[in-house]
Amino acid sequence: MTASEKILVVGPSWVGDMVMAQSLYRLLKARDSSAAIDVLAPGWSLPLLERMPEVSGGIELPLGHGELGLGKRRRLGRALRGRYDRAIILPRSLKSALVPWFARAPVRTGFRGEMRYGLINDARPFDPKKLNQTVRRFVALGLETGEAALPEPPEPALDIDEAARARLIVRLSLAAEGPVVALMPGAEYGPAKQWPPAHFAGLAGRLGREGAQVWVLGSSKEAPLGREIEEKSGSRRVRNLCGETTLVEAVDLLSAASVAVSNDSGLMHVAAAVGTHTVAIYGSSTPDFTPPLTGKATVHYRRLSCSPCFERECPLGHLDCLKGIDVEQVFAGVKARLA
After folding, report:
1. Model pLDDT for residues 198-256, shown as the tens digit of each residue
2. In CATH, which superfamily holds the domain spanning 163-338?
3. Residue 137 three-state SS
């Protein structure tokens, strides 16, 4: 890696993966503090990238999820010609390597696969046993060619805007007294990653009766789910905020929470990255692959014979991996963190 290297990173398309990718950016900056790192990413993620001090700038990829958009990729790549010394392509798809190729980045690093020969000229072998976590796969692409030892991935650490957080708390009329527990009941991937709403509602009610403020966070898609949890909790200290905040506003609110309880989701990784103690609940996925990247985490995972299946819906129809995680068990752990 040369001094003042200009690097283009083709980022992932999921919130959690985008947060975990900060480990790569931190590694690159630790090795060359003068490196300039730009990230090519979906438009929704640009405000999140602004909370990563290692990133010089975000470049919007104006395409929908899964869209090839060859013409758009060609135009964008040509507009970026001459700007970068190196490109690192995190997704393993063919289309993700097109913009760096059109941009004629001299070195284009990525994993072998999906017929990307030529598009990638620094093809790295993909060993799923060695690279057994998403974050390790990202960090591995930041190593020098031939470097064998994989370093411990740096933990993501998102910047917080405390002034914006204070204004947001006033705008949302959030109570100022008592500890805050954030609940994130959604999971974009599907219901096989979601602890049952009744369990979240039971937990919210117990916490509210113990004097905690409970903020239910998520996107507008999760608003009905948040409303169900709020109503069934039986506590006036539970607030459904799903759909009332942007992603970066959720970043700031999570930094105000003492504990966050979440499915394996993007907001789980956000909570970990702002330093909040994160209680992570796993069903169809596994903490072996996408753990919360923090030393302040409690993980609930049953390790059933059918787990992990990585399916969107339970293929056996029982969802025992999640239903069997007891509300009282989770409550006791959260309460201990509030003491």
Report:
1. 999 999 999 999 999 999 999 999 999 999 999 999 999 999 999 999 999 999 999 99
2. Glycogen Phosphorylase B; (3.40.50.2000)
3. helix
Q: Order of strands across the sheet with 180-184?
A: 238-240, 213-216, 180-184, 259-263, 277-281, 297-300
pLDDT at 2: 47
In Å, what is the CA distance from 60 to each residue of 36, 49, 68, 90?
Answer: 17, 11, 15, 16
Q: What is the tens place of the pLDDT at every residue in 126-163? A: 999 999 999 999 999 999 988 888 999 999 999 999 99
- For the record, the structure tokens of 9 come out as 């990173």
Q: Sign of the C-alpha dihedral, residues 80, 81, 84, 86?
A: positive
Q: What is the dihedral of CA 256, 257, 258, 260, to 10 degrees?
A: -150
Q: What's the DSSP call for residue 153?
A: P
Cis peptide bond prior to 308, omega within 30° of 0 = yes
Instruction: From the options 3.40.50.2000, 3.30.420.40, 1.10.10.10, 3.30.950.10, give the CATH code of 6-140.
Output: 3.40.50.2000
